[in-house]
Amino acid sequence: MRGVIMRTAGDVRVEERADPEIIEPTDAIIRLTATCICGSDLWPYRGVEPADHQPMGHEYVGTVEETGSEVKNIKVGDFVVGSFVISDNTCEICQSGNQSQCVHREFVAQTIGTQAEKARIPYADGTLVATPGPPDPELIPSLLAASDVLGTGWFAAVAAGAGPGRTVAVVGDGAVGLMGILAAEQLGAERIIAMSRHPERQELARFYGATDIVTERGDEGVAKIKELTGGFGAHSVIEAVGTQEATMQAIGATRPGGHLGIVGVNYDVTIPGIDLFFAGIHVHGGPAPVRRFLPDLIQLIWDRTIDPGRVFDLTLPLEQAAEGYRAMDERRATKVLLTL
Length: 340
What we know:
This protein is of the alpha/beta class. It is 30% helix and 26% strand. It is built from twelve helices and 18 strands.
């Protein structure tokens, strides 16, 4: 089969890979219908994470072609959406709603690699969710978004306590930040402030429910949030970037007693303990337990209640994956969908 391999930082190629086979009785083999490039894929692309001939990709939808002998809930022919984290969905951690911390956790990125024609998914019953039937083609992008960015944005909004009567501020206007806006709107937030400097992303933010746009960053951004909230700061803040500036901006924008949801993959971020101590806020986040939300998100998409697929602003065939990486690295694209 054909699949994306990152040989070294900045060197992405589509090469022949061995077809996946059932290894464990809990495995399933799926033929992918679509996959995509994530902002977190740019970490190894830019050399922040090591890159040495890794199979890339962790977002995926497709049709089940084969199952192991112990797979009971997923059957051949099902169209499925999978989480970017493998989970059994039965252990005590999973049952508490934290599937991304499953005792059998395995990250799909750089191990399984779903920027490919096929993929072997371990713990298929716990990781995959079947759609109500074969989806209409126009639903594929939205279902693909549910595999990571929608689920991650939704978790961020939940972690931030978004809900009725609350003001939500979203730091980051990439795909996850935009999905955080969508989630906050669906959860009933009264006001949603998007922090963005990019006109096309601002337009999408407003489509998803943003009521205000703040272009300032850093201390100026925090000051603007406080100005818009009577000097208090937002009740709920989503951090969807992962940089030092974004993290401190998010902490500063959260009112005392408020909630901060952190989902931006961060490297070399140092939070001064005294700043966090005196902020007096609740902080929650980490790798999103997408599997926890998948059934409900799939139904919202199926019913045409939400349209997360609009977050994809560039579509390319798998063979042009290298151009997709360049486009996202150069911020010419928010999120790239790869067709198969």
